[in-house]
Amino acid sequence: MGVPVKILCILMLLLHTSSQQKQVFNDEETLEIPENAWMKTLNDDTLISDITIPGTHDSLALHGGPLAECQEWSLEDQLMAGIRYFDLRVSGFELIIMHGPIYQFTSLPEVLSTIRKFLKKAKFQNEVVLVRIKPIFPKEKVQNLVENMIKNNNNDIWVKPSIPKIKDVRGKIVFVQKNSFKLGITLSETDKKGDYKVAKVTVKEERIKRHLEEAAKKCRTGAALSLSYSSGTSLGTYMIFRLLPKQLAEKINPWLYGHLEEELKKNPKPCFGIIAMDFPGIKLIEMVIKFNTFSPNFPPPMGLSRN
Fold this sequence. Notes:
This protein is of the alpha/beta class. Helix content is about 35%, strand content about 15%. Strands 1-2-5-7-8-9-10 form a seven-stranded parallel beta barrel, surrounded by four helices. It has a two-stranded antiparallel ribbon with strand order 3-4. Helix 7 links the parallel strand 9 and strand 10. Helix 2 packs parallel to helix 3. The termini are far apart.
């Protein structure tokens, strides 16, 4: 009797571990997504650069196999789960969404339409959605195409370079500018050129730590919106195919959750700007959001003080 019981305990432990893993890393399209309208309690006078925002890297890279896929959830599911920053690679050919040479079966007009529909729902009218447009071939056409697309319908899109307060952009899309796209607020990336290449997970962990420390120093200065990535790939390193986006996220996301959990214990709580992730699970997204809970951006819950 003892052996079957021991085996059963081991199986239960493995199932529990697997379930916990899926809470911070998720690659299942059919996961039930809870509705997360977390921005409604942000202080109206807070600058958009002064909060910690869960985002996704290459947000709509859903197709193309293990080399290209960075997410599993649709745009609608990511919005519902609380993701508020989207990283889009947009081609000058009809503003289609790409990941490298791989078409992602949607376009920027379709993406903006989906976000607008989301923001019009009663529960999400106080949310703010940030969109970074990264032009790809032919790059030089992208900004003109975007400007022409929105010129008669941009009341709900923030295109100014100044950092807005939350009250100025509730229910709106905020464009984020960098390099060859010059509409929206300024982005300050903590990652350096080549940091996305990962041969060792421990090295990536140290990079993320440094980047978050840098972002925390910049936060609440009002100068720019910080962006840090937890994503990466072993392509371009001696590891070649060993740590593609999904395999790396499966290792990094639990570590990131633990690291953020420790950071959350600090008083006052740090602010990190945008954290862009691959394959984030619900609990990891919620952990990122928690950094706003006991800060000047949020009122403390009933009966609790900030101390």
